[in-house]
Fold:
Amino acid sequence: MNVITVEHLFKAYGPVVAVDDISFQVEEGEIFGIVGPNGAGKTTTVECIEGLRFPDRGTVTVLGLDPRTEGDRLRQEIGVQLQEAALPDRIKVWEALDLYASFYPRTVAWAELLEQFSLAEKKEAYFARLSGGQKQRLFIALALLNDPRIVFLDELTTGLDPQARRAMWDLVRQVRDRGKTVVLITHFMEEAERLCDRVAVIDRGRIIALDTPRNLIRRLGGEVRAIFTVAEVAFTTPASMVMSTAPAIAAPSPAVVDRVRQALAGVPQVTKVESAEGEVVVHGQGTDFIVAVVTRLGAAGIYPQNLRTEQATLDDVFLALTGRKMRD
Ligand SMILES: Nc1ncnc2c1ncn2[C@@H]1O[C@H](COP(=O)(O)OP(=O)(O)O)[C@@H](O)[C@H]1O
Ligand SMILES: [Mg+2]
Structure:
């Protein structure tokens, strides 16, 4: 069952077209991701769905309601964590919950939310004293106060360290596991890939792809990369000496990359050889990709060091679709 239907949504701010003919549906119980670079139109899109902004054109239906005319009823059914959320510094955690609870005719007991979000011992703490992760946990708790059917989380983990971010991912999954639909807006591709059942990739106000993360990545043909450094001395020295001299590993010179490229020429599993951020990157596909690469390099006297492999990611999908990199 669809809980959100967006059809031909369009919104401009003066000459700036923020959302340019976007259509999609969100199914009940899924974590639906809206991902894309800063300025892509993500927040504008969801705030039109939440009834906080008004589209120029197009229709939005949320749980059978029109956010334009039935915003008050809609806000009883949805939970919103705004990208620009803020609370007064001197409000205490419990006071914030109590205040927000007063906005709704029906709420869950907020003491349980404090427990669930590990904020119980911070109950008396001032908002300003909370860590970034604690603030964000409080904002999710506030978004869940009215026991909403749909929860919108906009850039929930921006500004958090990797550990706090991962902890937040677990909380988002818990929210979904309680039967709620989650709309997750993020410019972190990894976050969308890990969390979302389906992802709409937005760029410049348009949806450029919409599918499960796995299907989006599969479209790239299941690309694999081998990434490694090469000790330059290995080219002129027998293997036995390379092992013992432990040469300094420098960024690959064009000559090194050329040498790798030559060694791998004609290997069917290999599609591209390049250097990136001080390492050699070999692109290709197939389950025997790594064996083929290492075998051929070894035969040419090239000994990859610090070798690791990477599978294609949503970042690659974005690059393949737009020709541009998504940067944090
Ligand atoms: N209130 C506003 N007034 C004018 N321009 C805006 C406003 N909100 C967003 N924009 C512009 O609309 C575009 C999309 O913004 P936004 O929806 O916030 O994107 P995102 O959330 O993907 O970063 C950007 O170019 C942004 O500068
Ligand atoms: Mg935004």
